[in-house]
Structure prediction request, 125 residues.
Amino acid sequence: MSLVAIVVVLALVQYSAFGILVGRARGKYNVPAPAISGDPTFERYFRVQQNTAEQIIIFLPAIFLSANLWSPQISAGLGVVYLVGRFLYLRSYVADPKSRSAGFALTFIPSVIMLIASLILQLEI
Prediction:
């Protein structure tokens, strides 16, 4: 299995784990489905999962494009940065949403780098 495939599998496992955390928070903070509000801590877990869904939609095509058009090794490395960023985003956002910036940057910047590199290589700029 290639490094990129491993990173992609880890990203999907991480997203699934965040969903499990939302389910646990739903029980712990007594927020029955289908409600998505009611307890601030639950809402923070829910927002982390939702933001991760928003980010993974950008990340997955970005890593596949850049691995194919640019470098699988660099793409896998940027993918690891994405994974670390998502973990930091989870930890910081649940603790205090105002502290989420570093985790968000470590998530968003790798995807942007991979997309820009892919675009430049396709356009042969």
